[in-house]
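Sync notes, pocket subgroup
Present: LS, DG
LS reminded everyone that the earlier model was apo-only. Rerun requested with zinc ion included. Inputs:
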Amino acid sequence: MSRSGRNGKTFFGLAVLTVLLAAAAVLGSRVASLAPVVREEMERTPTPTPVYGLVMVVTPDPSLPTAPPTLRSGSVGDAVKNLQSRLRNLGYYSAEIDGQFGASTLEAVLLFQTQNGIQTDGIVGPETSELLFSTAARPMTATATPAPTAEPTVTPRPASRKPYEREDGLPLVVNRKQPLPDGYQTYDLVTMNTYCDTSVVKIKYKNTQAEREAVDALMVMLRAAAADGITNWQISAAYRTTKYQKQLFDRQVQTYMEKNGMSKSKATEATRKTVADPGTSEHHLGTCFDITVPGVSFKGTKQHKWLLDNCWDYGFILRYSEEKKNITGFLAEAWHYRYVGVEHAKTMQREDLCLEEYVQRYGVDIE
Ligand SMILES: [Zn+2]
């Protein structure tokens, strides 16, 4: 300190040669010679950090290894292990450190990118890598994804169980035989049009709402699809009130009566095949989405195929399949997916169970 104090000006002249050393020296000398001034300033100004516009010139050091390889779905090896442990330290990753860039790793990368405000493509290229392995990397925050709406913050209920879960933790079944419980209340609805990144998914109707947890999972899934090159997604329906369901139902009955000349009871019977009675639609839960592609019939599209192969890994189930229509009581709906969480979804896929069968097999008898 005394040396730099005496030779401060000389060191300042040499600053161009060794940026770091000079920076330290400059600071040292300035602090020493200007100490009284600084002290005086400190008394007047709240945070006088005497840093004099240091510009760091970073030149690549040839002795250091080159930038790490780009990592993406399917990558394997030690670089992936490093990635996984870093993501785990930051709270984004909780699965095994196995060196395999699969769905869990992808999910963690996407979350990291979202929460750190960089491009969310699920690929660990230079930008993501540099930020991830720096001190500027932000750890995972519990309330995922930005909430850019001006909506008042919802106060979560104290209960650990969500209303769309049964007491035993399994997904709540809502169907013709088991209507929505009396006094059912939603948990944490968000308005998708403002909450979601609409460059990833188009929300057909601007007031469409759904439960935050399900929407977050949906976005992770659709971003993963986009990383696979499958884009052009649309949400045609999500949360519905019983009042709205009644309008839908009555409108369909009316159409059958007017266009097909059916009696009211025949028209009602026909309507029940495709439209749920008010109180018996899963859409009342806010955890279901009608996922479509704008302007085309969804069945058979590449988006449809991608969901059939992958939705389970993201906690979604195809709710009404052709094979299970006698159990679900609904004709097949290629577009209707319900969020139930990864564990339930994967088991249902593996054991080929629809929700009714799953709950019967694994549920604890309630009441
Ligand atoms: Zn639906």
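DG: The CA atoms of residues 117 and 272 lie 46 Å apart.
LS: DSSP finds 15 helices and seven strands in the chain.
Action: DG to write up.
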